[in-house]
Amino acid sequence: MLRKLMVAQSVVALGLAACTQGAPDDAADRPVPRETLLLSTQAGPLVVQIPSGSVLFDRPRTVASLGGSWLLSATPSAGSTLLETFDGADAESASDVSLDGTLDVRVVSESGAAVALTDPLPDGWDPEVPLPRSRTPIVVADPTGAEQPRTYDLRGNFEPEAFSTDDRQLFMIQHLPAEAPTVYRVTVLDLKRGRVYPVFGPYKTPPERMPGIRLQQIISPNDDQLYTLYSSARPGYAPHHAPVPNDATVSFVHVLSLQEGWAHCVGLPEELWDRPASEQAMATSPNGRLLYIVDATLGLVTVMDTASLEIHTAPIDLAVPGVRHTSAVVSANGSALFVGTSGEHSGVTKIDTDTFEVLRTWETDDVSGLGLSADGERLYVAFDDRVEVMDATTGSELAGVAVASPAPIERVSVALAS
């Protein structure tokens, strides 16, 4: 096991101080319901039960589905790969199947019925850097073994991105030129015909070739749209040929409809250009209608209507200097945006999503991830070495679990324990 966890036997003061009104004295006496946390770390997914602190899943070479419903582990052995599927909510084994060849999992469908695998990357290769290659073999398999795996030998340099909602198509990033990538475009593989097609915009606009560096990625609550925050890798580039200064590095959100099959880049306001990725974070409203992009250093939040793709930006009283990492999550009723920061002034800030006024601020250690309980009453705050359970209204600490992790926790997803 890569990490060891222990449960705080009592609620202790770990540096949390409410900067607004005090918390009720009985907050610490409330029982914390059992839930599981899917912690997305740089070392891979980790499933922990709260409040017991039990480690339910911790295995290398594992990839979680974008929504966290499934975990798929690939174990090579003597020219074959054992593909095992685990339920993301309780980490219980769901199925296993043996595949020919040595393969790595790239993406998992939200239904859990399809997985795309490729040859392993060279040792030490950064997965965020496209690997130069003229051909790309991709294996698409049914993790249950009910359907025979299919191998697609594609001419060009492709990277699996996500499955369509009906699992009939595999969206891919095509890197161009294939053996010296500098730009990308979105394509789709028709799994029945075995053919690759370009992905057009929502208004039938032709696909663009874009220079971009992927910063963050989240999926909508309904699993029907994928949002990726990009920074242009080439100064002076902007989506849809919008005029920008030659030295500007533009930020934009790439929207991919997994249901309707279109893609579109939404340029962000000029204030958010030339910003480090660590200073910005994305979060969706529970109904999926709004996407929030927060820059904690600038004290700005941009809101995108996920249907019309229109945006507007509002100032918030959250100009935090020296931010090293920003996290965000929206309350269960959509009325509040929680923003966590690490850096010179670390903490959690609760913001009204109607007025964008700061409702509360709690000083903490460096925050590496945020999540909400299923009922929205508890806020899970991840740090480099622990996860604390806070009352989402008062900020009172309800429980704590120490997580000895070799890498900061990047994201916290919450699912009900069985």
Summary tags:
mainly beta, 5-stranded antiparallel β-sheet, Methylamine Dehydrogenase, Chain H, disordered N terminus
What does this 3D model show about the protein?
The chain is mainly β. The chain has a domain at 61-199: Methylamine Dehydrogenase, Chain H, CATH 2.130.10. It is built from no helices and 34 strands. The protein has strands spanning 5-7, 17-18, 35-41, 44-50, 55-58, 62-64, 70-77, 80-87, 93-100, 104-108, 115-118, 135-141, 150-155, 157-163, 169-176, 183-190, 195-198, 212-219, 225-232, 251-257, 263-267, 280-284, 290-295, 300-305, 311-315, 323-330, 336-343, 347-352, 358-363, 369-372, 378-382, 386-391, 397-403, 409-416. It has a five-stranded antiparallel sheet, with no helix packed on it. Strands 2-29-28-27-26 form a five-stranded antiparallel sheet, with no helix packed on it. The radius of gyration is 21 Å and the shape is globular. Residues 1-25 have low confidence and may be disordered.
User: For this entry, what is the oligomeric state of its chains?
Assistant: single chain
Taking strands numbered 1, 2, ... along the chain, how are they ordered across the largest sheet? 1-33-32-31-30
Estimate the helix proportion, in percent.
Answer: under 10%
How many DSSP-defined strands?
34
By CATH, the superfamily of the domain at 61-199 comes out as YVTN repeat-like/Quinoprotein amine dehydrogenase
Please mark out the parts with pLDDT under 50 across 5 or more consecutive residues, or reply none: 1-25
Q: What is the percentage of strand-forming residues?
A: over 45%
The profile of the biggest β sheet is: 5 strands, antiparallel
In CATH terms, what is the fold-level topology of the domain at 61-199? Methylamine Dehydrogenase, Chain H
CATH architecture assignment name of the domain at 61-199: 7 Propeller
Task: Evaluate the radius of gyration.
Answer: 21 Å
Contiguous helical run count: 0
Cα end-to-end separation = 23 Å
> Roughly what is the average pLDDT, rounded to an integer?
83
Structural class, by secondary structure, is: mainly beta
- CATH C-level class of the domain at 61-199 is Mainly Beta
The best one-word shape is globular
